[in-house]
# Entry
Amino acid sequence: MDQYKMNLILRVAKRHYELGMSQIEIARAEHLSKSTVSRLLGQARELGMVKISIVEPKHAFVDLENAMKDAFGLDRVTILPDVVGSRDVLRKDVCTALADDLSRDVQDGEVVGVAWGHTLSVLTAVLPKHIDKKGIKIIQLNGGLSKALYDAGADHIVRAFVHCFEGEGYLLPAPALVDTAEIAASIKSDSSVARILTLAENCRTAIYSVGTTGHSTALYQMGYFSEKDYEAIEKLAVGDVCSHFIDQEGRIASRELDARVVATPLSEIKKIPNKMVAAVGIDKAPAVLAALEGGMVNKLYIDQPAAAEIMRRKAAQK
# Structure
């Protein structure tokens, strides 16, 4: 494309987007047809001369946010509206809100623990390009190797956070769940795994979502359970936190099963002072409520329908 055409596209774009001129006004000023102006504006967007972003207004869910903070003793609740009825859009909005808070919530020299899953994968796509913190260590909170052809994306998630903070990264090279407690204990004693579990004891910030139960969930899709075994778990658990299945009161649903989990112990996760949790969807309300009741959340990022459902369930318990 010659320089004259480039200048014309730029001039038309500036007239429209910076000076607020209509396409008809630009056509008159440049001695062009309105259709040509429209085409040039399209080319300006295609060439990257114009970038359009939508800035959502702050929605007033202050009363609901404060009610959740008071009910569960939370440090922060951020509630996002379901504007277009799309779970994918809503998940991105919720994750963006969490990502925007990382620069103020993560401090120099911290160990930051991250889990894996769909929500965390979306979060990596909206992370800032760079957060200026020094000496950050990123650790994987729970094993993510799959028995089936299912990619949990754990390595990608850890690498994305490492890139964002320019820190050091530590993967947990193990499955989330193994056949026996003895195998789990053996894996945890391996030096590479033990090192990460030790780092987790000094973790100040943890970032994760809360899983539900069901055959569409990651832990089932990864091939850890037979259908019969999983049906037994569903009778006890409402969801999982970092691969630890919990009941409706936020307690370990099955001690026998939990002994087979290769992950930072739930008792250690509860001790982490800054637990940032993102969750989307009314179907997650029982599991998120359990995590809240069990003290596994300090800062919650959630959609308005799910938040309202959690508070409805909380009120029904009285």
